[in-house]
C-alpha cells in the first residue's frame, strides 16, 4: 500500500515542507540585526518565542486531541502569514516601534508553532492507524517526508541566501535584461515575502485536511479538560522511564543545536563567508538530510533510544567544538556536522514516542515533548544572550581580533559536553535499574 494515497498523509507532506522550509533561515540572525537590533536582543527574542510556545503547548496539543486537529493546523497557517506580514513592514532602526513589532512577531510565531506542534503529524498518523497501516509510518512516511523536507530545505536555503544579497539579485535581474538597483534594506525583505507566500500555501493545504478520529468529533471538551489531559500526560511522560529518556535526551541536544542554528548567519559573518554563500551551506545540509532517514532508521533498529541519542549528541558535540574555533571559511564544515543532527534526533524521538502512546493523546505527548524542548531552548537562548553581554567586558577579550560572540561559541561545547555526559550516565544507569 502506498500511504500517500491517503489524503491526510499526502497533505501532511506538503504542509510540513512548506511550513518548515523557510527561506529566511540562512539569514535569520543578521536579518534582525540589520533591522536595528543587537545580537543579544535577538537571542532574548528567541527566548520569548520559546516561552510563547511553552505556555501554549500546554493547551494546544490537548485541544488538538479534544476539539479537532485540523482547527489547530489551520490556525497555525493563519498566524504564519501574520508574523511574516509584521516583519515585511517593520521599520529599520525604528526604535520602540521596531522592538514592539519584533516582539509581536515572535509571539505570533510561537503561538503558530505551538498550534501546529503534533497536530499535523497526528492527523496523518491516525489516517493510517484507523486502517491498520500504522506500521507504514516508520517504514515509508517518515523517510519520504524527511527526504522531501530536506530537498525543500535545500531549495529554501539557496533562495534565501540569493534573495538577501543585493549584488546577486541585481546581477540575476540584469541577466534577464532588467536594470535594477536594489539595496540591502530592500532585499532583506525578499526572503520574508517568499515565506509569507509559503504561509498562504500552508493555509490552503490545511483547509483541505480532515479529522479522521471519531473521538475528536464527538468530544467537545473545554480548555479545562485540555489542561487536565496535558498535566496527566506530563506526569506520565516524566514518570515513565522509557518516555523520560527520550524527551530529556532530545531536549539537551536540541537546546544547543537549535540555539546555534539560529545564530549561524552571524557566525558566517564571523568566518568571513560572503552572504550569497550562506544559503549554499544550508543547501549542503539539506542534501545530507536526504540520507539522514536511512541512518536514523539504522540507529533506531540497532540501538535503544538512550544509546542512539547519546551517539547523536556526540556528533553534535564534535560539530560545536569545531564551531568554537571560528576558523575563517573552513569553519563551515563543523556547522554542517552540527546542523545535520536535527533530522537524526527528530526521527528517533518522534518515532519512539509514536510507539509508546495511544491515539487518544498522541498529539498531547508530542506537544509535551515540544513544550520541554522549547523550555530548554528558551533557557539556552537567555544564557547565550547573557554570555554575550558578559563576554563584551574588555578584560575578557584575549586578542583584538576576538569578539564576544566568538568567545561564547568557544565556551558552548564545554557546557554541552558536561550535560550530555550526565545524561548518558543517568540514562544507562536507569536502564540497568
Characteristic terms for this protein:
433 residues, Growth Hormone, Chain: A, 21 helices
* Terminal CA distance: 41 Å
What is the CATH homologous superfamily assignment? MFS general substrate transporter like domains
The CATH topology is given as Growth Hormone, Chain: A
Mean of the pLDDT scores? Answer: 86
Query: How many structural domains are formed by the residues?
Result: 1
**Sequence stretches where pLDDT stays below 50 over 5 or more residues:** 215-221
Quote the beta fraction. Answer: under 5%
β-strand number: 0
Name the structural class: mainly alpha
CATH hierarchy class name: Mainly Alpha
CATH architectural type: Up-down Bundle
Question: How many helix segments?
Answer: 21
Q: What would you report as the Rg, rounded to the nearest angstrom?
A: 21 Å
Major sheet, described briefly? none
Helix content: over 70%
Précis, in short:
The chain is an all-alpha fold and 433 residues long. Helices cover 80% and strands 0% of the residues.
Write the layout of secondary structure elements.
Layout: H1 7-20, H2 28-35, H3 39-66, H4 69-88, H5 95-116, H6 119-129, H7 135-164, H8 166-175, H9 184-187, H10 190-208, H11 214-218, H12 223-239, H13 241-261, H14 264-270, H15 275-289, H16 292-302, H17 305-324, H18 332-339, H19 341-356, H20 362-391, H21 404-432
Helix pairs in contact: 1-6, 1-7, 1-10, 3-4, 3-5, 3-12, 3-20, 4-5, 4-6, 4-10, 7-15, 7-16, 12-13, 13-17, 13-19, 13-20, 13-21, 15-18, 16-19, 17-18, 17-19, 17-21, 20-21
Amino acid at each position: 500500500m502506498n500511504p500517500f494515497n491517503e489524503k491526510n498523509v499526502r497533505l501532511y507532506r506538503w504542509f510540513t515542507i512548506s511550513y518548515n522550509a523557510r527561506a529566511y533561515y540562512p539569514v535569520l540572525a543578521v536579518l534582525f540585526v540589520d533591522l536595528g537590533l543587537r545580537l543579544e536582543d535577538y537571542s532574548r527574542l528567541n527566548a520569548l518565542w520559546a516561552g510563547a510556545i511553552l505556555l501554549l503547548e500546554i493547551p494546544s496539543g490537548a485541544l488538538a486531541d479534544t476539539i479537532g486537529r485540523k482547527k489547530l493546523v489551520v490556525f497555525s497557517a493563519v498566524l504564519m502569514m501574520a508574523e511574516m506580514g509584521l516583519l515585511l513592514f517593520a521599520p529599520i532602526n525604528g526604535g520602540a516601534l521596531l522592538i514592539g513589532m519584533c516582539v509581536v512577531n515572535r509571539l505570533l510565531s510561537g503561538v503558530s508553532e505551538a498550534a501546529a506542534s503534533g497536530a499535523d503529524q497526528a492527523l496523518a498518523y491516525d489516517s493510517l492507524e484507523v486502517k491498520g497501516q500504522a506500521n507504514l509510518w516508520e517504514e515509508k512516511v517518515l523517510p519520504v517526508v524527511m527526504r522531501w523536507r530536506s530537498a525543500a530545505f535545500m531549495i529554501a536555503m539557496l533562495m534565501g541566501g540569493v534573495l538577501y544579497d543585493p549584488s546577486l539579485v541585481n546581477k540575476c535581474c540584469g541577466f534577464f535584461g532588467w536594470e535594477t538597483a536594489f539595496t540591502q534594506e530592500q532585499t532583506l525583505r525578499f526572503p520574508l515575502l517568499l515565506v509569507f507566500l509559503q504561509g498562504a500555501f500552508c493555509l490552503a493545504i490545511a483547509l483541505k485536511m480532515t479529522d479522521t478520529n471519531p473521538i475528536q468529533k464527538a468530544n467537545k471538551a473545554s480548555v479545562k479538560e485540555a489542561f487536565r489531559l496535558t498535566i496527566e500526560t506530563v506526569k506520565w511522560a516524566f514518570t515513565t522511564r522509557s518516555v523520560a529518556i527520550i524527551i530529556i535526551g532530545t531536549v539537551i541536544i536540541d537546546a544547543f543545536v537549535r540555539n546555534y542554528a539560529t545564530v549561524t548567519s552571524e557566525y558566517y559573518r564571523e568566518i568571513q563567508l560572503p552572504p550569497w554563500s550562506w544559503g549554499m551551506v544550508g543547501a549542503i545540509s539539506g542534501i545530507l538530510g536526504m540520507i539522514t532517514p536511512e541512518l536514523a532508521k539504522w540507529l533506531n533498529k540497532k540501538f535503544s533510544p538512550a544509546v542512539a541519542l547519546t551517539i547523536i549528541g556526540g556528533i553534535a558535540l564534535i560539530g560545536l567544538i569545531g564551531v568554537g574555533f571560528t576558523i575563517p571559511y573552513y569553519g563551515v564544515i563543523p556547522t554542517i556536522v552540527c546542523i545535520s543532527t536535527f533530522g537524526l534526533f527528530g526521527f528517533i524521538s518522534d518515532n519512539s514516542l509514536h510507539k509508546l502512546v495511544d491515539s487518544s493523546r498522541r498529539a498531547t505527548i508530542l506537544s509535551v515533548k515540544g513544550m520541554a524542548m522549547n523550555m530548554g531552548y528558551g533557557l539556552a537562548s537567555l544564557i547565550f544572550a547573557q554570555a554575550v553581554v558578559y563576554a563584551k567586558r574588555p578584560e575578557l577579550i584575549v586578542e583584538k581580533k576576538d569578539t564576544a560572540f566568538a568567545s561564547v561559541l568557544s565556551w558552548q561545547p564545554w557546557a554541552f559536553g558536561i550535560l550530555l555526559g550526565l545524561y548518558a550516565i543517568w540514562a544507562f544507569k536507569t536502564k540497568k535499574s
